[in-house]
Amino acid sequence: MNLFTFALAQSLTVKGKVSSTDGELLPGVNVKVKNATIGTITDFDGNYQLKVDKGDILVFTYVGFKRHELKVGNQTSWNVELTPDQTDLDEVVVVAYGKAKRITLTGAVSGIQAREIRNVPTSSLQNALTGKLPGFFSQQSSGQPGKDASDFFIRGVSSLNADGNKPLIIVDDVQYTYEQLSQINVNEIESISILKDASTTAIYGIKGANGVLVVKTRRGKEGKPQINVRLEGGIQTPVRTPDFLNSYNTAILVNEAYENDGMPRLFSKQDIMAFRDHTDPYGHPDVNWYDEIFKKSAFQENVNVDISGGSKKLRYFVSAGYFTQDGMVKDFGTKENDVNSNYFYRRFNYRTNIDFDVTDNLNMRLDVSSRFMNINEPCNMNATGEIYDFSKMHPYSAPVLNPNGSYAYLSDTEGYKPTLNARLANEGYKRTRRNDNNILYGATWKMDFLTQGLAANFRLAYSSVDENYRQVHRGDYPTYHYNSSSDQYEINPNKKYDYGTYSVTSGTERATKDLNIQASLNYARVFNGNHDVNAMFLYNRQSTTNEKDAAVPNNFEGYTLTMGYKYKSKYLIDLNMAYNGTDRFGKNNRFGFFPAIGIGYAISEENFFKNVDWLEKNVQLLKIRASYGLVGSDVAAGNRYLYEQVYKENGNYPFGDYPGDTPVIKEGDLGTPSVTWEKAKKLDIGLDMNLFNKVSFTLDYFLDKRYDQLVTRADVPLIIGIGYAPSNVARTTNQGFDGQIGYQDRFGEFDFNTSLVFSYAKNKVDFKAEAQQKYSWLAETGKPLNQPFGYQWIGYYTPEDIELINAAKTDPTIKAPAVPYTDIPVQAGDLKYADLNGDGSIDDFDKGAIGKPNLPTTTLGWSIGGYWKGFSFNVLFQGSFDYSFAINGTGIESFKSQFQPIHTGRWTLERYQNGEEITFPRLTTNPSTINSASTYMSDFWLINAWYIRLKTIDLGYQLPKKVLPKYVDNIRFYVNAYNLLTFTGYDKYQQDPEIKTNTAGDAYMNQRVVNLGVQLTF
């Protein structure tokens, strides 16, 4: 055999596909022979083909993924799966109007690829981000279908205005609302970033004070059409369900409360026995209304199909998705009336993103997206709240149905309302329909003929929101009380003898139109391989019209200049300047200037660093950075034009012989002519490190000084007889740190990764123009934002206390415990509070700061993932710490709420004398005693809470290529879950730990979802 023949024998052509560990095919992957110049890149379908020699080592590299090597043997077909790389120096994150590499970034940005959250079985995008991004704080206070989106904040809160803490949301450089974000199909998204410091948010000027969430949608790439299909079906169950006492135990406690209030018992011994033995199920019912109304589980499904591909001149991405989520209420309707009073959510998403190259220098894009949504809910009722409310129904009020199948009414409650199942079956529903449409046209003109790196961009975006409702209701239908002793049926005293007809009403909830125009000049160029220069000048105008209220458009206009310089990716500087404003303010106060600077120093790029072998080998990145700047916020409660004096109609006033016919115009709050936006000075100092090719580390310290906040002054005497519009007076400070630690490694054929995300934000009120307080503990200044105030619980009044209180009425020299001045005297077993000012009375002067605000100061997210021979797993634990919440009214108070296990630990004389543990004050039928959380909020009701959730889990298996049908490129089966397990630090309440404080806690329950799915690629 000659040398030529031998060489041919050693050469072979290898080919295959490259995909990520979750099955997504990867175009553009670099495939090279190690230590040689031979190489290629994968096509749109992830295919590669390369002529190599036996024994060569192929190296696969792709931005955002770990480097992969394989040695060529006799095999000619190799399918390669790349693992996401959290330590990649070339990792690209989306920032304002562009992208940036982690190695050269000077600002505080946290980013995530959408493929990491596509398998989270939740309808709302923001729910899927919880625990994934440092600086991202969220609270999901409801699980109602279509209304379960979390409230979220970037680096906590800084503004005294509730709405003034919401981040700006930008999708493909166009502003979205919270509601619009929650409706986006995650399948349409490429990546998500949050911008946290002034260096990255000053570009948005008057809108950037609360941070910015930036979403980039997917776009097509050159290649033959690729079809991805995702089919999912899941089961929902409540994260936590309430446990109420049965009729027997409830009746015992009711009797006790009546005795405590000096009234005769409501139930006889025979009644109590009948409740216990269930000998008279219609005369003495025992109904668990929660179990009777709600199902054990409900179904949800998700279907997504996307097609992408294109030629060199035209590229496209088309996506369609359908999501449906059923509610937990049982179906009480009949086929005849065709009324569905259950909760449910239906959503259809459609998106087309098209890119076309008109010439080599002119590129255009056209994005069209629509979202169609239906939300159904029972008419005029909160089903969960109805069950909690003891005043509306008791477990012994009525049977679910009478013996003859007729509906019952609640014969022992005020108003004699029908039972809840009767109301759900007959009283109809409310259905909200919403249609969101977005159109974006863009053009980019490369002007290298003038100077290399110069380009002009233009974007025109139009969006509309149309939301209306249809309500079907009837109030007339017969209900009966069955008298078991006489075997007679008694009609409801409201005298409804027949079924009325359904009335149909409708209306518009929202109708808005938004037009956005952007035009910019961009310049980016590298000189001599060392000097990287970029700049952008942007004009931006937005006009939003609320057609429902026939209001004039709300206008925003601004100019932005950014400049950046990087020397050898070592010395970094970015300057950002925005001059923009809104017509919300007066003519001379509409525009403001918002500058910011970011600097960075990549020490690992220095020669002295690289000359140390250990450092060069083990420290891939060591960078320090800092930023400082000014940003703003124009959000405030009340009238939109705060500088104007407001006059409004206020009913009629009788004059002379025409009483009630003369309309009255009332003077509203005084306008503030000089009012302007809130301002925030933001400082950020950060550290980025990559170590040992396995570990990535990011840490940021931030300080946010918010001033000129728009609040209503409370230090103006009410004697002037009129209110004030919000003015620029308040100041707050918010500071903390956030970051992420990631680790990844390969053990044989097993790829492993883990990441810890942490965030801490602590704030305080520096000044808020509050009224001068008589005592220092009453002041909100110096306390955290939304600090709860109330009484300090010091135990229960004892029989000895009551004796002293009674004796002091006739002998003032006797020192007795302080009591409230009410018509209802305190009794032994009532809650006892500290008399802070020592005046012998419990009143508003004794209220002080108790507990902590409702928003956690600390959040953690710990993710663990791995991949082995087609099997993959990803697990996320998420926790929130250092916050408080309280439940009041129908959620916990006796005779307002259904009796719960905690009420069995109430104070009684016997338990007190025996030294037993007491967890609740004495029971009383009176709703306004010192034991009422609604009237006397105290730290007895407020708990310092924390929780840890097994937030998401995803287990999958990707079928080997050799077993797939000819036209199928990939099949992956998976099971995933959301809110699978929850661990909390409290047992006083039964509600979910993310419930809103100072409420009844009767929101629709947060849901646990277990989901099965399959992903196919053609």
Protein architecture, described:
The N terminus is likely disordered. This protein has a 22-stranded antiparallel barrel. It has a 5-stranded mixed sheet with strand order 10-15-16-13-14. A 4-stranded antiparallel sheet has the order 3-2-5-6, with no helix packed on it. Helices cover 9% and strands 45% of the residues. By secondary structure, it is mainly beta. The longest helix is centred in the N-terminal third of the chain and has 14 residues. The protein starts with a helix and ends with a strand. The protein is built from 13 helices and 46 strands.
Question: What distinguishing features does this structure have?
Answer:
1018 residues; mainly beta; 22-stranded antiparallel barrel; 5-stranded mixed sheet; 13 helices
Note the quaternary state here.
Answer: single chain
Mean pLDDT: 90
Which regions are unreliable across 5 or more consecutive residues at pLDDT < 50?
Answer: 1-9
- Secondary-structure content class: mainly beta
Distance linking N and C termini: 45 Å
Biggest sheet statistics: 22 strands, antiparallel, barrel
Q: Bin the strand percentage.
A: 35-45%
Work out the number of β strands: 46
